[in-house]
Amino acid sequence: MIDLTTAAQLIVLALVDSTSFGTLLIPIWLLTAPRRLRVSRVMAYLLTVAIAYFGIGLVLTLFAGAAVTRFEGVLDSSPFLIGQLVLGILLMLVSWAMDTKKARARAAVRAETGNGKLLSWRTRIMSGEGNTSLPLIALAASAVLLELATMLPYLAAIGIISTQPSHWPTPAFLLLGYCLVMILPAMVLLVARLVGHRRLVPVLQRWDSWLTRNAQSTTAWIIGIVGFLLAANAIAALGWVDIGA
């Protein structure tokens, strides 16, 4: 079993992941569709996202666990730690470059002007026209693929799970729990949408607009925070700064 501190770290990372484009922005966008909401369609989307993340996590955990065992000495070496420091600095620079005034202005325009064809497609797939959830499953798979390059909290969680002194299937259960927590906020919103849809839809629409405007900024902040943590960890491990007692 893992200790409470590790469990708390994984929960926090999962909640950070729950605010991403695929786990929150698209679900809110789907929940704001007019007409009668079909729960099965939203659940098909969310479960596809969770399963895709879980599958990717299993592969990466197996690889990471083997790499840690084989290269344990290398991971503590100065060249590796300097490389980690450089990577952290690069991520912070990428974060700064992503969150520019021009990027925020373009996001604001996207939030104010919806795409008519896209909105019509959303209405059609969410209102029960047709008898398949395949378009939403494809949308979920596409969202996960687009997020592969920015799933830094998930990679951090995989790193934590891989270093735990536990044996299979415990890492798989931890990944499964992580993925369920990751889609939990969207599921809570789904229940709330069903219970009080008239009151909640205006709120969801405002959230949708805000998330659309700030999605890139949020991603930039996440990348910057991960970069800072990598750099700070490397500096401490190199002994350049004493952060002990």
From TrEMBL:
InterPro entries to which the protein is assigned, alphabetical: Gap/Sap
Keyword Transmembrane helix belongs to the record: yes
Transmembrane stretches, start-end: 6-31, 43-68, 80-98, 134-161, 173-196, 217-241
Keywords: Membrane, Transmembrane, Transmembrane helix
Keyword Membrane set for record: yes
Identification of the protein by name: GAP family protein
